[in-house]
Amino acid sequence: MNFGGIEPAFTAYKKADFVIVPVPYDLTSTYQSGSRRGPAAILEASGNMELYDEEIRKETYRSGIHTLPPLEADARGPAEMVDSVRRSIARVAADGKIPVMLGGEHSISFGAVQAMKEIYPEISVLQLDAHADLRDAYQGTPYSHASVARRISEICPLIQAGIRSMSVEEAKFLEESHVQSHTADFILDGGTDAWWETICGGLHGDLYLTVDLDILDPAVMPSTGTPEPGGLAWRDLLRLVREAAKHCQIRGFDVVELAPIPGLVAPDFLAAKLVYRIMGYLSKKP
User: Fold this and answer.
1) Which pTM value belongs to this model?
2) Which domains does the chain have, with CATH numbers?
3) Under a CB-based contact definition with an 8 Å cutoff, are residues 215 and 171 in contact?
4) Is there a contact between 28 and 144 (Cβ–Cβ < 8 Å)?
């Protein structure tokens, strides 16, 4: 099962600009599990998309999209799984490809960022998320989904957008750190007419984009492990990604935390179309 169900002429690894890396893992999920089924649901939904993208007016798949087999979960623990992700993403990025990781829970993103940092030393990270994910550790591990942004902030600059949930520990950390964190309220209520410029205007150079689907409002995206009210709409999210792509060279990205609900396919399709749209923003081919 390859992304988009595209014909073999456009799936060869050697010629592909994009490489899909499915990571079906949710060991540290703490509310609703199920994001381990997210990658398969995205791949299945992607086979039902129109491959002509009506917004950007091109067939992105012609840039080449190769889909790797799912990365096997490492049952030894979160630290080992993060390292497994790091090694997998590093191989893809070292070949000059744009890795596109499908989660799975958000903890896996730290491994991807570690890999990208090895290849692009000046890389920054844009985190689109409902949750700050800045706890130093959670439930006994520093590699929890609730700590992923804290780990990322320790190795490269981090910008957050869409945040609407955090602990007091995280609020205090933000006051003392260099993390730039923008709330959902800033975007939806209290921001300027050009809020996207405030968030993305300072971005430059190499960027890794991590998208936790709970950045979207649960009315739009109910299929997440930790839904939060007051989230963004589809077009808000696309505007953020478009602006980031204008200001930076996005070297890789992930879409994580889809926890499929049986019989409800709209969120799965949204996730698949988001992945394809982001690839379209990054594709250099007409």
Assistant:
1) 0.96
2) 3-282 (3.40.800.10)
3) no
4) yes
